[in-house]
Amino acid sequence: MNQEAKKLWLDELKAVEQARGCLRDGNRFCVAGALCNAYVKETGKLHWHYDWLANYDRSWVAVPPLEVIEWAEIPTALLDNLMGLNDGGTGFEKLAKMIEEEA
Fold first, then answer.
1. CA distance 17 to 61
2. What does the longest C-alpha to C-alpha distance in the chain come to?
3. Are 71 and 2 in contact (CB under 8 A)?
4. How far apart are CA 3 and CA 17, in angstroms?
5. How confident is the model over 38-57, as pLDDT tens digits?
6. DSSP 16-75
7. How many angstroms separate the CA atoms of 60 and 55, rounded?
8. pTM of the predicted protein model
9. What is the Cα–Cα distance from 79 to 25, expressed in whole angstroms?
């Protein structure tokens, strides 16, 4: 995994409240939404439109887009696992530990 992206993601997990079942819910984010938010802050290439991640071509997504995954250089299997655990009730502290160890 891209180590700078990993650091930004872990910082984001410490800074936001947790959501489940969506990338973003107001000021709360799921584990993947926190990764997307780190990407938005770092690159400015995407933006949030309410609770949807929006591309400047007006496409909206509810899952991390490929450009975020490629930027982070995260294996999709790991991201899928983390998203499933997040939505199943695993807290950010445990998810952050998994990211530190596995990514």
1. 21
2. 36
3. yes
4. 23
5. 999 999 989 888 887 887 66
6. SEE-SSSSEETTEE-HHHHHHHHHHHHH-S-EEETTEEE-TTS-EESS--HHHHHHHT--
7. 6
8. 0.93
9. 19
